[in-house]
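Example record used in the benchmark description.
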Amino acid sequence: MRRFLILGAQGQLGIELQSAFQDAGQVIALGRADCDLSNPSSIRAAVQGASPDVILNAAAYTAVDRAESEPELAMRINGEAPGILAEEAKKSNALLVHYSTDYVFDGTKSLPWVEDDPTNPLNVYGKTKLAGERNIQQAGGQYLIFRTSWVFSPHGNNFLLTMLRLGRERPELRIVDDQRGAPTSALALALATRQIVDAGRGNPGIYHMTCAEETTWYGFARNIFARARAEKPWAQVVGIPSSEYPSPAERPANSVLSNAKLKSTFGVELPIWKSALERALRTLGMLGCDGPQ
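Model output (structure tokens):
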């Protein structure tokens, strides 16, 4: 029986990974209290104690704006911890599955980004995630790095749940409409990961893994409110340029990722993001009728 160690058990992806792998073998799911990714000793003890065949690292420092004022902590969790996990995985001949981000790119390309495009992160979060990728590669073990984007689910903290809350509380929401990306459900990520892990350990490397098609944050918000059932009308959504919504961390204008390598290598495709959104709303008991796009 294979042993799976899931880190970030209470996060939106960690929750979905536990469900996706529950019948795959013995699952050991650890949260922040069980494994502190800012503490190398805690990381090594967690891995050695679990003796896993597969490590699924769904834990990360994800507060993009706050990372600008906490760069050292973000680097320990996003940059240094994945390297330590990779070292421990190599010692025990385990496979490390790690999740990275679209924010390793600067957004200047007009077409979707491919895995071999030059990286040039604009913010501390992106820089720390890129450091994590490189530290995993340098460790020399077996690994899969999945870059994803705009993750949402019925759990945790994410754009979907924030919109559902603010849409009830405010008459108007001003949402950035000049940043392009692919909203990706944590459930879709978890199911695709299970499919790939079940297929074997071949083809290590970096792969882009997002839901199909693209939109802007404004488009994402409009689709949420068009599809979600509500007792009273949702807030009016107004699209604005990034210049009208200053934030500590700069975001890339285009962070759409190409999934061609994932499909050609593993035969895996994630659903269209609108379908994934509807599934999440159904889980929340809030799916209404399809509305305008």
